[in-house]
Amino acid sequence: MAEVDVVTMLNAARGGFEVAIGLTFERASADEVECKVPVGTHLVQPYGLVHGGVYSSIVETLASVGAALFSMPRQQTTVGLENTTSFLRAVRSGKLIGIARPLHRGRATQVWEVEVRTEEGKVAATGRVRMLCLEAGAAVAGETVGIKTR
Known about the structure:
By secondary structure, this protein is α+β, with helices and mostly antiparallel strands. Helices cover 24% and strands 41% of the residues.
């Protein structure tokens, strides 16, 4: 599947949360995932800075998408086990650009690293997500893991 097809599919299938924060995918493959998030008043905390949860959400979303794109051809799904996000620079406006790349892709787990930068290229946050690779038909919280359609 061509990269542009994956990006179009991902943007069309964004969940309510991704839509709410304004996240759109720019590039997506099993080796790298990129998004943009415009900073608006709905994303800032009382001091006017981007809320830390926004960075954690970008990290989680990009790592999850990359891990899934790698696992789907192997008939696997993935779920997050751990998200560690560090906040490095305060941001008040502009756009956040997130890029995720794999650090480890094994049979049972994956680790993805994400950088979130400002439009000027300054690193605002970094994160790592550890993912569990599940075989087809695996259940989590009492349901088989799979993408839910609206």
